[in-house]
Amino acid sequence: MAELKFKSTLSNEEIEQNFSNIDFFSGIKSGLEEALAYEKGSAKAETIARKLSLPDVDVAEERKKLDMTQKAFASILGVSKRTVEAWETGKSNPSPTARNLIYLISQDHSLVQKLQNHF
C-alpha cells in the first residue's frame, strides 16, 4: 500500500495543539456502544444518525457565492456534475463527507484555490 503524504501550512506543534482537547477514545467508545445497541435492537439507525451533527449547507448558494459552474464545483468536490445537479434540485443529498467539505469551503474560500492546485 502506498504511503499517503499530506502538506500542511501548520507546524507539527500547531497540529498537536489543534487536537490536544479531543478525546478520540471517548468518540470511538461511544460509536462502538451505539453500534452494539443497534445490533441488540435497542437503538434504531435513525436515532443514531440524528446524533451526528452535520452542518447545513445550501449547495447551490455556496457554489454561486464562489461564482463556479456545476462542473467546476463538482471537480473540486470529486463528484460528477450530475451529482451536484441532484443535490441542488433536492433529488439527493450530499454525503456527510461532501457536506463537511462544502461547509469548510464556505468558511474559507481560499480552500478552493488549494483544491484546484491539487488536481
Descriptive report:
The structure is a single chain. The protein has helices at 12-19, 24-40, 45-51, 59-65, 70-77, 81-89, 96-107, 110-118. It is mainly alpha-helical and 119 residues long. It has 2 domains: 23-52; 55-119, lambda repressor-like DNA-binding domains (434 Repressor (Amino-terminal Domain)). The model has no long low-confidence stretch (mean pLDDT 80).
Question: What does the secondary structure layout of this molecule look like, with pairings?
Answer:
Elements: H1 12-19, H2 24-40, H3 45-51, H4 59-65, H5 70-77, H6 81-89, H7 96-107, H8 110-118
Helix pairs in contact: 5-6
Features:
119 residues, 434 Repressor (Amino-terminal Domain), mainly alpha, 2 domains, flat
